[in-house]
Amino acid sequence: MPEADGRPYDLVQRMRELGAGDPAGWAQSELREDIPQEARWLILRQLWPKCVNTWTAETIYEVPAAHRAIEAGADPDDLILAMRAAAYAAVHAALYVIDGPDIAAPPDAPGWSLMEVRYDDLDEELETGRRIGGLHESILSADPSGREGADLWS
To answer: Cα–Cα distances in Å, from 31 out to 3, 27, 94, 110, 132?
Structure first.
């Protein structure tokens, strides 16, 4: 049975299943403010495991400079932490760029927008018309460790 907002599922339960901290808060924001929070969370939750947390004791050796630093006596754990912090900074900067126009571009230059889509019964993509923004503001909340990136700066 569809929920009151027309979804075929309970948004709070969906956000809980997707691993969002404070699933009720995310759902209430979407329903009250018409912010595509489910779509935002679906993006944010992928960034830590696919970008930030990819640097491990095994993967740092894929970077020749890191390998040389370890051979020269650098602590591998410190290198991992530094590489994760750099990855976080790059992700945050990229999200900030996505969220806004290039203010140094000419006034008539094109812009961009990240938009939410849904899929119909035939898997056809349907734009909802809702812009996904503010991702850089929420990236820390997506840290799967629950520490909101605190370990990157210690």
So the answer is: 11, 6, 27, 31, 15
